[in-house]
Amino acid sequence: MACGWQKVAFVALCAWLALAKPTAEKKNRVHPDEPLSEKKHDDEQSFDYDHEAFLGAETAKTFDQLSPEESKERLGKIVEKIDSDGDGLVTQDEMTMWIKHTQRRWVYEDVDRQWTGHDIDGDGSVSWEEYRNATYGFLAEEAQGGEEDGFNYKQMLGRDERRFKAADVDGDGQASKEEFTAFLHPEEFEHMKDIIVTETMEDIDKNGDGFIDLNEYIGDMYNQAGESEEPEWVKTERQQFTDFRDTNKDGKMDKEETMAWILPSDYDHAEAEARHLIYESDSDKDGKLSKEEILDKHDLFVGSQATNFGEALTRHDEF
């Protein structure tokens, strides 16, 4: 009988398989750089967007319940964490890294949930053998080459092993916590972009020619079974493929064109917010923020129980 972590792995595997099956609904393979908050970014109305960008949505709610004194005190401790080189100044790069860390918090929480079940021997790393046995051990027969409901478990095993090796940057066969994070959430790591593109093309490229043609592109997101006419969004996607996806106009997408489609990199929300926070708080205009400068503008970074936005604007105008 499967133990607890095996059941969790089985559920995760079944979910992955369900997502891999063709559906009549539009499938979205794009990994955009998402906005940092669902709140409107308008500092003339409120600093809610900045609070959620800087702290993360849940932590921002916690700060809203604190007294102004405690909120400011906790902000001071956060500043010390952001200043990674300990020189007393927060650079744009340090601010960007902090914002990205807060936005990825759910990723780290997911990794924490899975870590114990895969680090079987408790040595602080996950080997490929540990991951394979934890995920595929109870599907040994299928993973050795069986096929069930159209899915080849041996193929899935090989795909996971390839991704594991890509995440294992030092090549020691052991995934550290950071490497395991890259394995589970490759979209969050620059060095994993190639493997995301490769996996996507393998999913869509049905004729195995190493490219994605128009029929494969549409077929991945739309199954016409039972429908006499294509929905308008499908027609739009056909036009998108011709006008924007297939940039060299050869009738198909290669690896570079696929990467531009699924991993758009035209805007970095975290970097833009870091520039904004520094610009608004940098009283001596040296391009960096001291702890004092951040605390002077604490209402921009964090909220509190007694924050009155009108008063906050007045105080900011005095600087």
TrEMBL record:
Protein name from the UniProt record: Calumenin-B-like
Gene3D superfamilies the record matches: EF-hand
One term of GO molecular function: calcium ion binding
InterPro entries: EF-hand-dom_pair, EF_Hand_1_Ca_BS, EF_hand_dom
Subcellular location: Endoplasmic reticulum membrane; Golgi apparatus; Melanosome; Sarcoplasmic reticulum lumen
Domain EF-hand residue range list: 70-105, 106-141, 155-190, 192-227, 269-304
UniProt record similarity statement: Belongs to the CREC family.
KW Repeat (keyword) present: yes
Gene Ontology CC terms: endoplasmic reticulum membrane; extracellular region; Golgi apparatus; melanosome; sarcoplasmic reticulum lumen
Source organism per UniProt: Petromyzon marinus (Sea lamprey)
Chain residue ranges for the region called Disordered: 24-44
Swiss-Prot/TrEMBL keywords: Calcium, Endoplasmic reticulum, Glycoprotein, Golgi apparatus, Membrane, Metal-binding, Repeat, Sarcoplasmic reticulum, Secreted, Signal
Signal peptide positions (record): 1-20
